[in-house]
Structures are given as C-alpha cells and as structure tokens.
Specification:
Helix content is 32%, strand content 16%. The chain is of the alpha/beta class and 348 residues long. It has two domains: 163 residues; 158 residues, Rossmann fold (3-Layer(aba) Sandwich). The protein starts with 6 loop residues before the first strand and ends in a 24-residue tail after the last helix.
C-alpha cells in the first residue's frame, strides 16, 4: 500500500465530530508527517488538496458520497474507508457503483467488523480492519456534584429508524421517578413528529430539548454534560447501523451508553463496562431500567473513556502507518459479548 500525500474525508451532513482533526490525523498517518496540504471544506466533508502528481486516499463514512464526489484530479481512490451503512443499500445502480469503486481501490479500510464481514468475494481478501479514529478530549468533564438531574442524550439524524422517538418514551417513563432531561441532536425530516411526541413527555415532567442541527462545540458540550447516551436504532426498510460512531464519540467524553442491538451498533461499547447492549425487541421499561443501572455504576464513565482511548487518533494513526509501511499486523476489535444475529435476522 503506497503512501498517498492527500486525504479526502467525507462526512455527509457534517455528522462526524472532529472532522478537521480527523482529517489532519489521517494525513499525518498516511504521509508520515511530510507536510500539510490546505483544507477545503465542502458539502460532504473536508478535502486536503493534493500536490501535483499525488495519490489520493478517501476516508468515507458513505461510499455513495464518494461515488457522487467529483474532482478534476480524482481518478479513483487509493483506499476506501468502509463504515457499513453504505453496504446495506442493495439497490441495483448503487450496488454497481459501489462494486466498481471498491474494485478499483488499492486497499480497503474497514471501520467496523460488520463492514468487513459484508464485503463479497475477492474484496474480503483486501480489507483491513482498523476501527474509527476518535478525537478524545484532554480534559475530563467537571460536573456539579449537587446536580441531581439525570441527563440523557440521543444523537443522530432525525429519521424514524434512529430511535429518537424511543428515547423520548424512555425519558417520559423515567420522569415519574427522577428529574430527567433529554437532549435530542440531529437534523432531519422527523423533527416535526418528534416535537409532537415530546409534548406528552414534557407534560409528564421530562425536560425534552430538540436541537436539530448542532455545531461541533455544542455537541461536544452535550456529550460532556450527559450521564447516559441513548442509541436506540432499529432496522427499517433494509437499513441498519454499520457501527454507530456517536457511541464512541460519547465515550470519549466519559459518557456511557445504552444501545439497542442493530447491525453493528454493539461494537460501540464494551458490554457491561462502558455500556449496555439490549436486544432489538427491548421494551421502553427495560431500556429505562438499563439507564438507571448504568447511571448507578461507579465505574461506567471511566470504562467508557478507557474504551474510547483504544480508538484515539494517535493509536489509530499507528495502525494506518503500519499498513502504509507494509507491516500489517491484524488488529482485533476489543472484546465484546457473543455475536448478535445478523441484521437480516433481526425484526425491524
């Protein structure tokens, strides 16, 4: 795998925290620190401009964004970053485009074991599991010890399958027993419906706040303030989670998570330590009980931060540098629970 001198980082909708920091870390890892190219922001992320004759490496959370991306000097990437969600769309045209892009790539880098496992045929022989790069803040949060409010957070695009509606139902149930605040972050077409669902939750005593799109600083502050992240996706219309990067982003701020098992969502936590993975069919009551159990744990926040550090930018960069130098040492995902059913076996 040759060393390219430019990196394209695709983050559709600005959904990836620390994009600029990740872009710089990717460039340092892939170029051995040989200079830094200018950053160019675009609608699908950040592109680091190449020097004349330079190769390209594309790190993308969505292969379809890569397929649509055009640049006069982009003639097929050297590498393709596979998240997983882009592998779950089986439409004919998209599948052909995806297969063509992956086949031309010099190497395939997978962000999750699910992305790795969904590749077909000869592509399986060329994929390297490297995990996601996660920016981990240097300073830990400083919370008021007298603050008795249970602070919950749900982050992701506002569409039904992301489970913000389930998070609101959990907050409403918990409000009968404890002071609770739920922040919901993410733009999308489901916001109007979510506002309607929030009304009875607020009437029941829950403080529900729908932020829509939030800038990076606001999102990071909400991560830092939260006691528990709720990541409650469900499989709908053939789509499921490739990983659920927000769970690891929350862990980087010492916020543990309650996660519904959906595709690769379980890979975001160390089960029973940095979070709890519930079956896809878990009820609102079961989810609320898991929240209370996790919040009561004296070690969950520390475990979440420890888990996130396994994916920090320096650690991730070292794995990439090994690949570019031709010294590939297979990397295993941190130990988790027993494998879940495949997404197509789960009930939407």
């Amino acid at each position: 795998m040759s060393s390219p001198s430019a990196v394209a980082v695709f983050a559709p909708g600005g959904s990836i925290g620390g994009v600029e920091e990740i872009a710089r870390a990717a460039q340092r890892a892939l170029t051995a620190g040989d200079g830094e190219a200018p950053l160019h922001r675009g609608s699908r992320g950040i592109t680091l401009a190449p020097r004349p004759g330079a190769g390209w490496t594309a790190l993308t959370w969505k292969t379809h964004a890569l397929v649509r991306f055009t640049h006069p000097r982009l003639d097929g990437p050297d590498s393709v970053w596979l998240h997983g969600a882009e592998l779950t769309r089986d439409g004919g045209l998209h599948r052909q485009l995806r297969t063509g892009v992956l086949a031309r790539a010099h190497a395939l880098l997978a962000v999750s074991p699910l992305a790795q496992s969904l590749l077909e045929g000869a592509l399986q022989q060329r994929v390297h599991l490297v995990g996601p790069p996660i920016p981990v803040p240097q300073a830990e949060r400083d919370r008021d010890p007298d603050d008795r409010v249970l602070r919950l957070l749900s982050v992701g695009r506002s569409e039904p399958r992301k489970g913000h509606d389930s998070a609101i139902a959990v907050a409403q149930l918990l409000a009968a027993d404890v002071p609770v605040r739920l922040d919901v972050v993410g733009p999308g077409p489901d916001l109007l419906r979510l506002r309607g669902l929030a009304e009875p939750a607020v009437a029941a005593g829950a403080d529900v706040r729908l932020h829509g799109r939030a800038d990076e600083a606001t999102r990071d502050q909400l991560y830092a303030d939260a006691d528990v992240l709720l990541f409650l996706p469900r499989a709908e219309q053939g789509e499921f989670e490739g990983l659920g990067l927000v769970v690891l982003e929350a862990a980087a701020h010492a916020c543990p998570a309650v996660v519904l098992d959906c595709g690769g969502s379980r890979f975001g936590v160390a089960e029973g330590r940095s979070g709890l993975v519930l079956p896809a069919e878990a009820t609102v009551r079961q989810t609320a009980d898991a929240v209370l159990a996790l919040h009561a744990s004296p070690t969950a926040r520390t475990a979440a931060l420890t888990y996130a550090r396994m994916f920090d930018l320096d650690t991730w960069g070292a794995r990439i540098r090994d690949l570019t130098a031709g010294h590939h040492h297979p990397w295993s995902w941190p130990q988790l629970t027993a494998p879940s059913p495949t997404p197509r076996e789960q009930t939407p």
